[in-house]
Amino acid sequence: MLKKTLLTVGILFAGLCAFLGITWLKDTWPIESTSLKNEGVGKLAIGMDESQIRHYYPEISDAGNFIVHTKTKEIICLELSDKIAGQNFTTKRGIGIGSSLADVKREYGTNYRQKNTERYGNLIEFQDDKTNQKLAFGIDLSNEKVTVVVLFDYKKYNYQY
Known about the structure:
Elements: H1 2-28, E1 40-41, E2 44-45, H2 50-56, E3 66-68, E4 75-80, H3 101-108, E5 113-117, E6 121-128, E7 133-140, E8 145-153
Antiparallel strand pairs: 1-2, 3-4, 4-8, 5-6, 6-7, 7-8
């Protein structure tokens, strides 16, 4: 009886480990690199100096739409989650809030990782291994429209979706 109980517990434990491993792997499994060279949001790009934000966009310089490295004072993360009156912020390839999933795939391809996140819900993530950048688009599955755009340097900043 003890052997059957231990065998059952062992099988259940192995199943749990397999499930957790697969869940973890689907969010971290390597994907083919997508070129994000010279990518940015509006006139801003990863690696720019903090002063350039104020130069290009004085009205949003303290709005929390970007993260600056504390030592180098360079932009390491850009987040576009709301439309700003009088501004039409998009990526360098023309994708912004309200763009369609088909537009994203046409501009960036299909080498992406799908994630379901607490913060943004469904998300697709592109990665450029040469520039150490990730570009993520939150997608509303009911209408397949972009709800958020996040660009960050994954070697310098661990963005929490």
